[in-house]
Amino acid sequence: MSPPEHVVVFCTAPAAEVGTIARELVDARLAACVNIVDVRSCFRWEGSVCDEQEGLLIIKTRYDRLNPLIARIRELHSYELPEIIALPIAGGHAPYLDWIREETG
């Protein structure tokens, strides 16, 4: 099975960092678009349950840009272990998918 052409990447980060990360990814053409959503995250870290206000980055990009995108997020992100997960885009509005391809070229 071949990889998808487009992916959506989810990444949570401190609210103070999400705007910078989003702008950097779009400016570098690693992402066509990044939505920022305020979220509350509950997770276990180093043996404790944490409950934090964060920003969720919803990143639209091409699969072939994924590794450089991950590397750039890791450079910009303050967390020791940032959440960076990618989901394939199985389909969608063709002109929008074309736009993703053009903006990340």
Explain what the structure shows.
The protein has 105 residues and is an alpha+beta fold. The chain contains 3 helices and 4 strands, in the order E-H-E-E-H-E-H. It has helices at residues 15-27, 66-76, 94-103, and strands at residues 6-13, 33-45, 48-62, 85-88. A hairpin with a 2-residue loop joins strand 2 and strand 3 (48-62). Helix 1 (15-27) packs antiparallel against helix 2 (66-76).
Which features does this protein show?
single chain, 105 residues, alpha+beta, Alpha-Beta Plaits, 3 helices, 4 strands
What is the C-level CATH assignment? Alpha Beta
What's the β-strand tally? 4
The CATH architecture is 2-Layer Sandwich
Number of helices: 3
- Taken as a percent bin, the fraction of beta residues is 35-45%
Provide the structure class. Answer: alpha+beta
Low-pLDDT segments: none
Name the average pLDDT.
97
Order of helices and strands: EHEEHEH
Overall shape: globular
CATH topology: Alpha-Beta Plaits
Count the domains.
Answer: 1
The share of residues in helices is 25-40%
Largest sheet descriptor: 4 strands, antiparallel
N-end to C-end Cα span: 23 Å
Write down the Rg.
14 Å
Question: Strand sequence of the main sheet, in spatial order?
Answer: 2-3-1-4
